[in-house]
Design goal:
Number of strands: 0
Distance between the termini: 78 Å
Protein name: DUF4142 domain-containing protein
Organism: Robbsia betulipollinis
CATH architecture of the largest domain: Up-down Bundle
InterPro entries: DUF4142, Ferritin-like
Order of helices and strands: HHHHHHH
CATH class of the largest domain: Mainly Alpha
Helix content: over 70%
CATH topology of the largest domain: Ferritin
Number of domains: 2
CATH superfamily of the largest domain: Ferritin, core subunit, four-helix bundle
Largest sheet: none
Pfam family, one: DUF4142
Radius of gyration: 23 Å
Shape: elongated
Number of helices: 7
Strand content: under 5%
Keywords: Signal
Length: about 190
């Protein structure tokens, strides 16, 4: 078994330090600071848009469902909210599993405009705004993002997750539209 002399150990240390200053490694540090991964892998614009919309949709659905449970007096609205909360928690976990390991998903990505619009409302005013903004408009936006990912995404795992989840999101839109019709809320 050979041992390195102090001189060869110093040479290895110097060579290692020199490598830290190379442009290639500097670009890795830049990539990490700018949101790209250390491996250089980044999401395409379509994949990134999908991740942003899907995480915001899930977070907003979960947060507004909690709000609906507290601020609505309507059993149908509360039942819809419960269903959305459970499903979007599952969808959120599926997206986390599908995302590349070197991509960090946004956390607490709740749409502040929707939350602000709903926070001060109660009763029928809350119900109508919740159904219109979350049940219908929010799901319309999500359906378009999921369809776009299925058709144009480049990350196979994200496309698969979008394809698997799209029928659920489309079902939510139909449920939101049916609830709007039942409650006389114009879309």
């Amino acid at each position: 078994m050979k041992t390195l002399s102090f001189r060869s150990s110093a040479a290895v240390a110097c060579a290692s330090a020199a490598l830290l200053l190379t442009p290639a490694l500097s670009s890795v540090a830049f990539a990490q600071a700018s949101g790209a991964s250390a491996s250089g892998a980044t999401l395409s614009a379509v994949d990134q848009k999908f991740v942003d919309v899907a995480t915001q949709s899930d977070a907003t659905e979960i947060a507004t469902a909690k709000l609906a449970m507290a601020q609505s007096q309507d059993k149908d609205v509360k039942m819809f909210a419960r269903h959305m909360r459970v499903d979007h928690m599952k969808l959120s976990m599926g997206l986390k599993s599908a995302a590349p390991h070197d991509v960090t998903l946004p956390k607490d990505n709740v749409d502040p405009a929707v939350m602000d619009a709903l926070k001060g409302l109660k009763g029928k005013a809350f119900d109508d705004a919740y159904i219109k903004q979350v049940g219908v408009a929010g799901h319309q936006k999500a359906v378009m993002a999921f369809q776009d990912e299925v058709a144009n995404g480049t990350n196979a795992d994200l496309k698969k997750a979008a394809s698997k989840s799209l029928p659920v999101i489309e079902g939510h839109l139909r449920m939101g539209q049916a609830l709007a019709k039942k409650k006389g809320v114009s879309e």
